[in-house]
Design goal:
Elements (H helix, E strand, L loop, with lengths): L1 E5 L4 H12 L3 E6 L6 H7 L3 E4 L12 E4 L16 H9 L3 E3 H10 L3 E6 L4 H14 L5 E3 L11 E2 L5 E5 L4 E3 L2 E4 L8 E4 L13 H14 L5 E5 L3 H8 L5 E5 L5 E6 L2 E6 L2 E7 L5 H16 L4 H8 L10 E6 L2 E6 L4 H17 L7 E5 L4 H5 L6 H4 L5 E5 L7 H4 L7 E4 L2 H11 L5 E5 L7 H14 L1
Parallel strand pairs: 1-2, 1-4, 2-3, 4-5, 6-9, 6-12, 7-9, 12-13, 13-14, 19-23, 20-21, 20-23, 21-22
Antiparallel strand pairs: 7-8, 10-11, 15-16, 16-17, 18-19
Helix pairs in contact: 1-4, 5-8, 5-9, 6-7, 8-9, 14-15
Amino acid sequence: MHIHILGICGTFMGGVAALAREAGHRVTGCDAGVYPPMSDQLRSLGIDLIEGFGADQLAIAPDMFVVGNVVSRARLPDGSPKFPLMEAILDAGKPYTSGPQWLAEHVLLGRHVLAVAGTHGKTTTTSMLAWALEQGGKAPGFLVGGVPLDFGVSARLGDGAAFVIEADEYDTAFFDKRSKFVHYRPRTAVLNNLEFDHADIFDDLAAIERQFHHLVRTVPGTGRLVVNSTEESLQRVLAQGCWSELARFGAGGEWEARGSHDAFDVLRQGELVGRVEWELSGLHNQMNALAAIAAADHVGVAPADAARALGSFRNVRRRMELRGTVGAITVYDDFAHHPTAIRTTLDGLRKKLDEAGKQSERILAVFEPRSNTMKLGVMAAQLPWSLESADLSFCHTAGLDWDAAAALAPMGNRAQVAGAVEPLVAQIVAASRPGDHIVCMSNGGFGGVHDKLLAALRTATAS
């Protein structure tokens, strides 16, 4: 089969492309931003890429057009279509489908699908689960919205029956407004947590809870739901109906942890079944580990083996990824963009420093409100709360329609804002001192702030 993917350079659609190519299909694609590293990865797989969404691509005549959710029926100010190729597909009556639907029909069918859903921690937990199954001899396939360091790729078919997938609640396509995860039909589903997010497509938390329950409805009676026992929103989801085995994790659940976040026993119904000792920090990663271990158990990986595997887990790129150290100042890159994720990331680092006897070392939080939800400003008031563990905070305000300085005003002189990356870097360098930990947080490229910051620190140190 020849498929042509619209929006191929997105993380999810790029993963679909890689899986399709590995399965022997001919794959081509287009996107508005065809640039490294995704363009290089795709071309290395023999996938031809086209810049833009021109209607002339209709002449490629694939067996199926696979449409990413970046595509819409939007019009430009002059009235012309923003995506001419999509209009041409519709006018010509050519076959098209969504990425999740194509994946469900051509990759997931017949597999034991383990889907990891939640507002936070999906990528990390999916990667943990895939690694536990890999070390447990299951040779799983997977599709992750990031690059697990242990695998070096974001997607593969795998030789085993299991397929682990990051299950996103974002909508499927302009013609299918259901959440992506409804298509995956998992036999094991992890519900990691649930907060309000994606304000551009959901009116309120109840609307997201409804989508999560659509996922619950697809899990068979012989399946397993692995659910965070501490989340009230998830309890409301389950109250709408649950027809599968239920495994709760966290305080009061069947699966619990005992010990510090970087070295803890895993308990199942109070019985010791494994121990995790690793380099990761934070309660959130401890909870992610419990979810992964409980899910791995459902496909026959013993909890002790899964816990041991996580001891060698190297995390995911852009999850507190060390980018460099200059003059005893450490710079990290992290994907956090929701206020709760920002707080969780910073709290985890603060606890790690405190436990290491480094209470005097400061945390400098550098972030951009880039997600659609944050751009709308609906969570602006939560920013001071999310940054409480930081000694100083620096916000990149470009592209915002709301006043970030006003939102951060309760923090006084602990917060600064800048409308461009260069002055932001200058602010950070002027405030930094040896022993500082600078955490750059964004769900995008952040204008190359990491490299610019490291270069500026080297210059300042040398002078």
